[in-house]
Amino acid sequence: MRRVGVLCVGNDSPGINAAIRSAVVRGLDLNIEVMGIKDGFEGLLRDDLEVLLRPNVSNILHQGGTMLGTSLYVPEKNVEKVKEKVEQYGISSLLILGGRLGAKAAINLMKIGVPSVLVPATIDNDLAFTDFSIGFFTAVEHVKNALDVLHSTAESHHRVMIVETMGKPGGWIATIGGLSGGADYIITSAEKPNFDELIEIIKRRYEGKKRFSLIVVESGVELPEEIKKECDGFEKLSSSEIIGKYIEKKLKEKFGIEWRYTNLGYLQRGGSPAAMDRIIATQMAAHAIEMIKMGKVYHAVGVKGFSITEIPYSETMLNYRPVDYYLKELTKLFY
What we know:
Belongs to the phosphofructokinase type A (PFKA) family. One of its GO terms (molecular function) is ATP binding. Pfam families: PFK. Keywords: Cytoplasm, Glycolysis, Kinase, Magnesium, Metal-binding, Transferase. Residues 3-292 form the Phosphofructokinase domain. By secondary structure, this protein is an alpha/beta fold. It has two domains: 2-135 and 273-318, Rossmann fold; 139-269, 3-Layer(aba) Sandwich (Rossmann fold), CATH 3.40.50. Helix content is 41%, strand content 19%. The strands form two sheets. A seven-stranded mixed β-sheet has the order 3-2-1-4-5-10-11, sandwiched between helices. Strand 7 (185-187), helix 8 and strand 8 form a beta-alpha-beta unit. The longest helix has 22 residues, at 136-157. It is elongated and about 75 Å long. The termini are far apart. 48% of the residues are buried.
């Protein structure tokens, strides 16, 4: 019997529990014992782990977050201590659920001979080796739902609504969430924003029958200094708030525009996972267990369409993937 230690590294994302469930069920089928490690590598170092059986995972498919807990801690200086713990518990391979922090941990451990398989779990969907990561579909659904709700009050009060999303610097959440929710303009770190175009689009809408706008802005997007200086006290404002004040300054006198700001924050990260997140989590985790059974470690699992892929570890795993150019261009058809 092989023993696998499953743990989460980085932020939680909806669908991780589906992956844990799949790993345990497939592991039992292949005579592999799965140990759940609490709170990532911090839990491993404090000996907080237990064997997981079917009863432990029988009712977690629909639950958000992670039953194991997680942490942002990545072993670097004390990787040898992690290796000692892995050997102490007879763990033949780790199954790491995470995004770029998980990839970093996997590479660090590979360098000292600690086997692992990485399953991508991040709402940002910005890992270069996979089309989709666990949690992305749910986050996009939350953005879409928020825009649907804000649409009615924006239209009723003739306001510009600034909606801030997570996902920097890839731009995936803002772009796909904004496109599916009918945003009138989307600003991400994936390209240089055109503020002349933004003002012209809002102006054109107010001159016509659409006297409101929904503007989606990726959190922490870098703004040109000339835009910042248009707004008093910009040092204390978020990028989204600066954009709102800039719009107001340019258009309030002519159109009487008011703006409101909504930061979706952690609302994007929680809740019951969408169907696709459950499916890809189940697929990738089961495949990861099968790889470990065959001794195929030091690989990341990914998806290309509906097909599972296996990617050898390399430093390129740490690269982020910006949103697809065609999708970003597609949004402009609706401006």
